[in-house]
Amino acid sequence: MSAHDAHPWIRLCRVDDIPRLGSRVVERAEGNLAVFRTAQDKVFALLDRCPHKAGPLSQGIVHGESVTCPLHGWQLGLEDGRARAPDEGCARRFPVRVDEGVVYLGLD
After folding, report:
1. If you placed Cys at 106, which of 7, 46, 59, 64 could pair as Cys (CB 3.0 to 4.6 Å)?
2. What is the largest CA-CA distance in the chain?
3. Residues in domain Rieske (predicted)?
């Protein structure tokens, strides 16, 4: 990790600790985060609140690079947190990187 990184990187877990097509919750006083793993082992992190009715995205269904909220079926992109049309809204995204199978979370 470079001293020039914009975020302090926190070691979270190994990629294999996150279920494929599932998530892991990171509890924080400022609001929980949902860290997702796709079928292709890509890892993403979003605030664990759907922008619609604050449903827990960590309990949603991961498909491709999207997650479907378990409450009302809103689909959000894991890359950017944006709701898929016709819905509108955005879940806050957090930077993630994987280095030698270890997941690091960028927090500000």
Report:
1. 7
2. 42
3. 10-105
How many Cβ atoms sit within 10 Å of the Cβ of residue 45? 24
Report the amino acid identity of residue 13: C
| Global confidence as pTM | 0.91
Phi-psi region of 60 (alpha: psi -120 to 50; beta: other; left: phi over 0): beta
Residues 34/45, Cβ–Cβ less than 8 Å: yes
What is 22-106's CATH superfamily? Rieske [2Fe-2S] iron-sulphur domain (2.102.10.10)
Task: Render the burial of 24-42: b for 16+ CB within 10 Å, e for the rest.
Answer: bebeeeeeebbbbbbeeee
